[in-house]
Design brief:
Elements: E1 4-5, E2 26-30, E3 42-44, E4 53-54, H1 56-62, H2 70-77, H3 96-102, H4 110-119, H5 121-131, E5 133-135, E6 141-146, E7 152-158, E8 177-179, H6 180-187, E9 214-217, H7 220-229, E10 234-237, E11 255-258, H8 265-273, E12 279-282, H9 285-289, H10 292-296, H11 301-311, H12 337-340, H13 348-361
């Protein structure tokens, strides 16, 4: 029987090389009917880099028993390749200009007002810029999830008490936790087939601090506060106790210290041991030092640090001067003190447009007086 290299009839006639394992570069030896002798009998196209060439003569010399039953031999030794996985869908992102518009240091959310009360206004401005903390018209904070490549995946909208810094969990208050992508879908700003793929909160900071150890916590609030009080780490948040999974793949090659909430040590310890390729240590600090009252309150590492600030055992960071404009206490353009100086001279139907225009361009009145009457 004559054997020859299979003629090229398209990519289906080129296979995976058994030596270098490159795809679509291996030509099988076939008979007159186009039947292959064996999946290992053929020649690799990469003659210099690989050079694999196994001829029928060599095969029959190595397998004399196969000369008479080569068809059965082929069927028994054929390699079943796994089915080709469908190509992954492209990631979906939130438009970057929405983040830019939402992160405005001139507006305070209830959360950043709390930050300013414990860390000072200038430190708060720095944290707003670093973590890209957004604010809604109603004063809720937006914790944007921006990945290591600077692409916004979504944003978590949350309500906080500006005095205590605690999340508002009153069942009578609607929209306590919301998502930017959900709001945009409902308004038609995103297509119905837009799909969410989350990342770690604060992930975009990794490229700015390539050698720094990563500290991992559950909540976004905790990451922001601890970033100011323990700056030796890059503080990232998973967004929840159960989120210690695929999100962490971006942290391979990094040293990680996880600080679970006081009730999450055992769960995170178990999950961390099941994550391959990660250098992660789970801190037992709260596990070993929390009081019964702290356990009942479900504290995290930020709660402990805030308590130490309040009792004087922890020195707050210096509120370093910054060139960023100081925080103000209005939540919408209509509450801008600069706009209020001229509001009485503007017809009510135009006030909203003028307020937004002043806010977007940073305009301030210089000389406010009514126009002269003719």
């Amino acid at each position: 029987m004559n054997w020859s290299l299979e003629k090229y009839t398209g990519m289906k006639s080129r296979h995976t090389c058994p030596a270098c394992e490159r795809k679509r570069c291996f030509t099988l030896y076939v008979n007159e009917d186009g039947e292959p002798l064996n999946p290992a009998v053929g020649r690799c196209d990469h003659e210099s880099a690989c050079g694999y060439h196994y001829t029928p003569a060599q095969y029959f010399q190595d397998h004399p028993e196969a000369s008479d039953n080569w068809r059965d031999n082929f069927m028994s030794t054929v390699i079943k390749l796994p089915k080709k996985k469908p190509a992954p869908k492209p990631l979906c992102f939130i438009p970057s200009d929405l983040v830019t518009r939402s992160v405005n240091p001139k507006y305070q959310s209830a959360f950043t007002r709390f930050l300013a009360s414990i860390l000072g206004p200038n430190n708060t401005l720095r944290l707003i810029d670093e973590y890209r903390l957004g604010v809604t018209k109603s004063g809720d904070v937006i914790f944007f999830q921006i990945d290591v490549h600077g692409r916004c995946r979504t944003g978590k909208v949350m309500k906080y008490d500006p005095e205590s810094g605690h999340r508002i969990k009153d069942e009578n208050i609607g929209g306590r936790v919301n998502w930017v992508h959900s709001l945009m879908k409902r308004s038609g700003a995103l297509k119905p087939d837009w799909e969410l793929t989350q990342c770690l909160f604060g992930e975009h900071l990794l490229s700015k601090c390539p050698g720094r150890t990563v500290a991992l916590v559950e909540s976004e609030k905790t990451a922001v506060i601890c970033s100011a009080l323990m700056p030796e780490y890059v503080w990232l948040a998973t967004g929840g106790k159960s989120q210690l999974g695929d999100k962490l793949n971006v942290l391979k090659q990094r040293t990680i210290v996880a600080f679970p909430d006081v009730d999450g040590y055992q769960e995170w310890k178990k999950k961390a041991s099941e994550l391959p390729g990660l250098r992660i240590t789970v801190s037992d600090y709260l596990e070993n030092t929390a009081t019964p009252e702290e356990r009942e309150a479900h504290i995290d590492i930020a709660d402990r640090l805030i308590a130490q600030l309040q009792d004087g055992t922890l020195v707050p960071p210096e509120d370093c001067p910054t060139e960023t404009p100081a925080l103000s206490h209005y939540g919408t353009p209509l509450e801008n003190p600069d706009f209020l100086q001229i509001a009485q001279y503007i017809s009510p139907e135009y006030q909203g447009v003028v307020a937004v225009f002043m806010d977007e361009l940073g305009l301030v009145p210089i000389d406010v007086r009514p126009a002269s009457q003719n």
